[in-house]
Each structure stands twice: as C-alpha cells, then as structure tokens.
Amino acid sequence: MWTAERAGDTFGPFFVERALTPGRGHPSFGVSAATTSFSELDGKNLRDGSLLIISNQFRDEAAPFDTENLTLKIRTSGMTLFGSVPVTDHFEIGAALPLVRLELDGARVTVHRGTTLAQASAQATASGPGDLALRGKYVLFDEEGFGIAAAAELRAPTGDRDNLLGAGKAGYRVSGLASYEPSHYAVHLNLGVAGGGVSNEVSLSAAGLVAVNPRVTLSGEMLARRVSELRDLDLVAAPHPTIPDVDTYRLVSGKGDNTAVHLVAGLKWNVARTMVVGGHVRWSANHSGLTATLTPTVAFEYAF
Questions:
Q1: Per-residue pLDDT tens for 119-156?
Q2: In this structure, are strands 28-41 and 201-213 parallel, antiparallel, or unpaired?
Q3: Longest C-alpha distance within the chain, in Å?
Q4: What are the boundaries of each domain within the chain?
Q5: How far apart, in whole angstroms, are the C-alpha atoms of residue 296 and residue 265?
Q6: Mind listing the pLDDT tens digit for each residue in 253-288?
Q7: How far apart are CA 268 and CA 275, in angstroms?
Q8: 60 DSSP assignment
C-alpha cells in the first residue's frame, strides 16, 4: 500500500491552517460530519429550567415572588464539503460548503408564589446550505521546513438568515500563517482578522502535531476569537411600571467584544493509498457565548 503524498510528515491540523501547500498537481477534496448539542449560554444552563429571564421582587423581600424561566434545547448537525487545488507550488485556492440541520425545542414557565404555570412551548427545525466559503493562500517563504503564507477568505451569504442557517451578508477574513515542519512533528500558528457577516473579530490559533508513524498523526489545537458582537448576559433591574416598591429584573445583552476559546484533540489515519480518515473532539475552554460540552467530528479526505 501507499501512503498519501504530502508536504510534511504529518497530515495537517483540522482548524489551524498550514502555511505550506502540497504542490501543484496535488488537489484534494473531502467531507466532514459533526453534531453539536449546546448546553450553556454565557455560562448559564439552557436545559434544566434554571435560566431566569424575568423576575419581580418586592424591595423589602429577600426573594422574587414571580419569575419566568426558560428551557432551550439547541442542536446542529451537518456535513461540510471541502476541496483545494494548488494552482502553483506557492498558490492554492479552495472552497467549503456546509449543509446544516438546526433543531430548536423551548419552553417558558412562570413560578408565582411557588405555583408553576406553563406559559409557552415550541419546536422548530430548519435545514439547508450554510454560507459558502471561498479562499486563497499564497506561500511567501518556504525553506527547510519553515513556511510563511498569507491567506484570504470570502464568505458568500448562501445560507438562510431567517432560519439561522447563514449570516445574511458577505464576510471576509485575512490571515497570516506560519509553520515549522521538521521530521515527525509540526507547529502551526495563525493570526487573522475578520469582518462583515454577523460580527468583526480577531483570531489567534495554534496547533501541534506528531506523526506517531507514517500513517497516523495526532494533533492538538487552540482556537481563540475576540468577537465584537459576542455579548454578556446580565439581569438588569428597573422599577415595575404599575406595582409600587417592586423591581423587575430582565435578562438583557450587555457589553460585547468578548473572547471565545476552544480546544481540539484529533487523529488522522492514512487508511489506504491517498484516503485519509480523521476524527476530533472540540470543547470550550471558557463560558463565553453558546457552548457545548463536546463536539465530535469525523472527516474523510482524498488527495490526488
């Protein structure tokens, strides 16, 4: 059997981008599948009914006499089709198209002086293509396993914004990439700036990889994003409009420009000739935004 031909001894990371290309004449394409069940929003549990959205409290009492709580189940599942073509040894173009299924299931209850009343419940499902990503990468320096490259990505608004499948407007990202790939291990570093879409952001990501044998690569990655529209959730008090000496607390979005950090552990295996199978798990290292306990992903890639 043959092993897949590649620029280094490792098969590359999942999210962090390599500075080097496979070289002209070696395109690749593949598909990945993932499912995510979100459990927290800004560190607040979504599933156990403890998410307080409104409460009314007399100022001379220690606890609210009336509360509204939300239970929300959010799951996304989907596949991403991706491919890349090295136009020259230093210039590569690629594309990725996600196909997404979104499931929402929510309920709101009121608790008044210890009596629980169901207020509303709803379910919704949406599926379709997400936003198409088109990208290019140019290698600026490549010598003795060390490489520096510049990359640019354009996201076209092909997803349905009304059903939360896309951003609704075009977005872009420009990145600087650095890689060091001596024998049997590799280190990659990306620094990027993004705009348009739903938010502006600055990102920093890093990956370390080890080729445990010619067919198997282990990887660990860190992904940090400073997102302008990623906001805190705060309970804000205001006097009740009709009841004297009562304050109403509402859950509202606070300041933005927060940082989300994710960690990734994965494996890639050259199962036969130029077919590579990969799998990884991703989890949140902090409680910023919408988070899941674990997100598993499997991927299949074929390189010519």
A1: 999 999 999 999 999 999 999 999 988 999 999 999 99
A2: unpaired
A3: 80
A4: 28-303
A5: 10
A6: 888 889 999 999 999 999 988 899 999 999 999 999
A7: 10
A8: T
- Domain with residues 28-303, CATH architecture: Beta Barrel (2.40)
| DSSP line for 94-108 | EEEEEEEEEEEEEEE
Q: Contact at 8 Å (CB) between 207 and 201?
A: no
Q: Is 289 left (phi over 0), alpha (psi -120 to 50) or beta?
A: left
The tokens for 151 are 């990359």
pLDDT tens-digit profile of 41-90? 999 999 999 999 999 999 999 999 999 999 999 999 999 999 999 999 99
Looking at residue 230, its amino acid is L
Beta bridge partners of 174: 152, 193
Which two three-digit tokens encode residue 180? Answer: 């060091």
Q: What is the percentage of the chain residues whose pLDDT exceeds 70? A: 97
Give the chain's mean pLDDT: 93
CA–CA gap between residue 132 and residue 81 (Å, rounded):
10
- In order of 16, 22, 86, 226, the CA distances from 141 in angstroms are 18, 14, 16, 28
Rounded Cα gap, residues 185 and 182, in angstroms: 6
Radius of gyration of the chain (CA): 23
Report which residue type is found at 44. K
Give the model's pLDDT for residue 7: 53
| Owner of token pair 């990945």 | 32
